[in-house]
TrEMBL record:
It comes from Triticum turgidum subsp. durum (Durum wheat). Signal peptide: none annotated. This is Peptidase A1 domain-containing protein. The keyword Signal applies. Belongs to the peptidase A1 family. One of its GO terms (molecular function) is aspartic-type endopeptidase activity.
Amino acid sequence: MAASAAASSRRGFLRLVVAAAVLAAFGLGAARAAGSSVDRAPLSVASLFPGPACPTTAEHEPSAAASARMKIVHQHGPCPGRALSTGNYVVTVGLGTPASKYTVVFDTGSDTTWVQCRPCVVKCYKQKEPLFDPAKSSTYANVSCSDPACDDLDSNGCTGGHCLYAVQYGDGSYTVGFFAQDTLTIAHDAIKGFRFGCGEKNSGLFGKTAGLMGLGRGKTSLTVQAYDKYGGAFAYCLPASSTGTGYLDFGPGSAGNNARLTPMLTDKGQTFYYVGLTGIRVGGQQVPVAESVFSTAGTLVDSGTVITRLPATAYLALSKAFAKAMSASGYKTAPAYSILDTCYDFTGLSDVSLPTVSLVFQGGTCLDVDVSGIVYAISQAQVCLAFASNGDDESVAIIGNTQQKTYGVLYDLGKKTVGFAPGSC
């Protein structure tokens, strides 16, 4: 959900309703019957749609070094995320003294954390929880225009000696208000003097959430403000199932010890987490795309973008390889849906077998996309490859949250690494 370079795919509000995959012999049998030699992953078609219940999944156990853990809720299904009508993942934080709880989207593609505030004299969208009321917090204070923190904002202003902030997102969503400070509570940790936006004019695709938690690399982000406490490290795991929960951990070692690491490229701006994507595999086979195609504009990892966007040349090669493998198994094609143009009709099928998809990064780190992140279902008659083209080779590539599911995704500013720990939730 980056506020600049990733404009073309900010906050895809595509409805991702993927539940836990049920391993089935039918899918594997279909692949073998077709004589295919590509690596495949079985998928229950029913798992592509919301389940009837919302049980709590087994909780992630952080390492001893992890300092704070919060529960992540899937954006769809009978879990709370659906009631909030947002296309992204959400967490619950405390704000103020005494602390009041607020549900916010968490976003690695932007910096400034904000919530809607009373009296909201200009414009606020409808949210599930009551608006944050600064008058009811004994620790709230506006940031003054003379405070150096005001200059840390990408866009600021001043009125009556108070600092103003403004954030415009790529999809046209925005928030404007007073830059303030108060006590932020995450899990059981209280972060005093945390600077955030007290939104008085807000509009866009935020659903019924109270606002947004910015986890980018910029100075106003939670990551940087709490650097002394957590060492600039955090990790999250996004659940594959609409009936499951994931986690957001802060602190060194939060993703565990099995994360596959790749360098964080820090020469492409202050907010985004850039990595070196070097190749793609479909069914275990390397897709013929030159590394230069990925390096032209770079690749960033973003929790606030839903569908992964690739340079046009890379996407064309991926979709062709995927379509070839699906055709070999005799799956019926279906019409395109929005930006998704490689689609199939699974009507009458209980289980299918999909060619695996892997993303290869600098240093050889490989992200084997979970089967729940390979396709996106509009209906049983229209299930599409969950990747899209940027339309050219000059726009930044974005690894979206669909393809990150079930991995512990680690960001470590101190070590300048991004990591992927398989099977984390």
